[in-house]
Give the backbone structure.
Amino acid sequence: MATMFGSGLSNQTGAAVGALAFPVLGPLGVVAVRQYVAALVLLAVGRPRLRGFTWRQWWPVLLLALVFGTMNLSLYSAVDRIGLGLAVTLEFLGPLTIALAASRRRLDAGCAVLAAAGVVVLMRPRPSADYAGMALGLVAACCWASYILLNRVVGRRIPGAQGAAAAATVSALVFLPAGIAVALRHPPTAGAVLCAVTAGVLSSAVPYLADLLTLRRVPAQTFGLFMSVNPVLAALVGWVVLGQGLGATEWAGMGAVVAANAMSMATAGK
């Protein structure tokens, strides 16, 4: 439990610290650095034998790399526009949709309706609504769902963490020109680079290793249930680190999405 909580807190704290570098590097620059850190960590852990990959193994790896980069860029861009709590809640719809779509239970249908009601509350028309930011959050959700499905394919075709390491490396190479362009256009400060690297460590390295250890001891159902805490952690960290407060209506919408996932996961084995 402590490891799962630490993983979620580390992930959301990393995103908040990365957001502190947005004024200098922008979301693109921060995501580029995060991709570099993720690639270094996964290469050290997975040690992929890239020359031995067949095309049947390479194509899902390349798709996973594309989805991985798009997911992080859309999420960080959404954080920049609508705040950490709302962005992570919308992104969380990705794995929630995967879980609910695989079920035929009436209870899960009710959970889907509850989650949809929460999204309607969060995206309701109002003068201050940033629909571009919300759309980016939904793009991140679609990417996270695709990330889960592609990881299953990669996991079946490539042993260990080699597939994830290869995908992270390809994604880092794709973001290399973007990182160079950002650095040339807006020379980074030491503080901004430190925030971006910290975001990469806290949001990529720590959660990956923590989840790897957790899933050896904890059933997948329990792990999925505990993931429900991430939007709440994101909102709290966004408030403490970034000063992004949420109103009662936003908390209600977020609570509906979290409750839908928790209810579905808690009863999955019954």
